[in-house]
Specification:
The protein is of the alpha+beta class. The chain has 3 domains: 145 residues, P-loop containing nucleotide triphosphate hydrolases (Rossmann fold, 3-Layer(aba) Sandwich), CATH 3.40.50.300; 105 residues, no CATH class; 140 residues, Cytochrome p450. It contains 15 helices and 18 strands. The strands form 7 sheets. The chain has a 6-stranded antiparallel sheet. Strands 5-6 form a two-stranded antiparallel ribbon. A hairpin with a 6-residue loop joins strand 5 and strand 6. Helix 8 crosses helix 10. The protein is elongated. About 4% of the residues have low confidence.
Length: 432
């Protein structure tokens, strides 16, 4: 879903007509609402929610009381929203029920809520789809793949709800994993299908929104309660620009950095573990080496990274004309770098399809191959793999697969969703 234009009249804190041309602000379709408490940020979001569903989250009052108290007498409250969803350009015009003075006599009368849902045709004309409240509600719900309740939970979570949310640590971990799966899942139905059979991208967008909201609230919490952790550092960090100006990261930069840390910081490593276990099962002599006491030295970790290639490829843009392998690449051309192919290059590696923990001269590309785009978490990833595989060797030396792996349907990430295994249980480990 992408928003194009929002216009409100006599709605919330806006007594007059206010129009926001979102297309004029950015081509990216991503916006950050910022401002002091009471500036109207929530009211803008309420207007979007009301245009879509004819209601706003319950914490912010009944839709029957959405008319601006400061609006001139007789001015009808109105919200108009243009958006694109599932390849269709739509316009919603809604008015809430409101009380107005009678034209004759004294007292007031109730104007009933109304709606007009229209779709823009290829010739630019607008065709009315519905003027019925119930029918429009069904059409919008089907297009977005979310009910009002689901939408408000994903995109309209009321202020103050995060406190209870953030205290549920186990639930947080579950949600973080879920968001990561939905973000990186690509076209995999298990992670992207919301059950409606509609656009799989809807759940991806929802996951991105949820992660950004979580990161924003986490920043606020760390400002109020600093701790000895990475996010406190990022919250308080300053950046010196080329002109000498010292500034902080913007809220948007922090939100995007959170997404980067969450997705890149777990998807690659956990898939390297899953793929590494599969590699050891296909090469039992190498697993015996680990369980026999050799452990995972630097060469062994690098070999697992080469063999698994958790990231299949990345795309870069050529900055100048060049030639590679007899192929002319012009400035501006998009070049796809297939790390999985490079890591199995028979011209570089002897027996490249074999997992060999004693392999030397292993200049694999699992972290991007060096340069400005080299993975900033490479050292941490290496340590994680060493610790995990040595722990598995100590606790589950006889681990074996009992069925085929269920692979992730995603071209970017070489991922494993499910791998059934069995092993002999060891003595439980008690932790404080």
């Amino acid at each position: 879903m992408r928003l194009h234009r929002l216009e409100v009249t006599a709605f919330g804190p806006f007594p007059e007509t206010v129009e926001v041309d979102l297309d004029a602000l950015s081509d990216a379709g991503l916006f950050l609402l910022t401002g002091p408490t009471g500036a109207g940020k929530t009211s803008v979001l309420d207007a979007v929610c009301f245009a879509l569903y004819g209601d706003v989250p319950g914490d912010r009052g009944s839709a029957k009381r959405l008319r601006a108290d400061q609006a001139a007498p007789g001015v009808r409250p109105r919200v108009e929203l243009e958006l694109s969803v599932a390849g269709r350009r739509l316009r919603l015009v809604r008015t809430p029920a409101w009380e107005r003075e009678k034209l004759r006599g004294t007292g007031t009368t109730t104007e009933q809520a109304s709606v007009v849902l229209a779709e823009r045709l290829p010739d630019g004309e607008w065709r009315t789809l519905s003027t019925r409240l119930d029918e429009t509600g069904h059409l919008v719900g089907d297009l977005l793949g979310m009910t009002l309740t689901q939408f408000t939970q994903v995109a309209m979570l009321p202020q103050g709800r995060f406190q209870a949310f953030l205290r549920a640590k186990s639930e947080d971990r579950h949600k973080l994993l879920e968001w990561s799966n939905r973000t990186i899942g690509g076209s995999d139905p298990e992670y992207q299908d919301d059950g409606t059979g509609d656009d799989h991208g809807a759940t991806y967008e929802a996951a991105m929104i949820e992660m950004a909201m979580y990161a924003h609230e986490l920043t606020d919490r760390k400002r109020a309660e600093p701790a000895d952790d990475l996010w406190t550092v990022l919250t308080t960090a300053t950046v010196t620009l080329d002109d000498g100006t010292v500034t902080e990261l913007t809220d948007l930069e922090r939100d995007l950095f959170f997404t980067l840390l969450l997705v890149a910081g777990n998807e690659t490593t956990r898939n390297a573990v899953s793929l590494g276990i599969m590699g050891f099962m296909d090469h039992p002599d190498q697993w015996e080496r680990v369980t026999g006491g050799a452990g995972m030295d630097e060469a062994a970790v690098d070999e697992v990274l080469r063999y698994t290639s958790p990231v299949n490829y990345f795309r870069r843009t050529a900055t100048e004309d060049t030639e590679l392998g007899g192929q002319l690449i012009r400035a501006g051309d998009k070049v796809t770098l297939w790390y999985a192919s490079g890591n199995r290059d028979e011209a570089v590696y002897e027996d490249p399809h074999r997992l060999d923990l004693t392999r030397t001269g292993n200049h694999h590309l699992a972290f991007g191959g060096g340069g400005a785009h080299f993975c900033l978490g490479a050292s941490l990833a290496r340590l994680e793999l060493k610790v995990i595989f040595e722990a598995l060797a100590a606790r589950m030396p006889d681990i074996v697969a009992t069925g085929p792996a269920d692979r992730l349907r995603m071209s970017l990430v070489n991922g494993i969703k499910h791998l059934p295994v069995e092993f002999s249980p060891s003595e439980p480990v008690l932790t404080a």
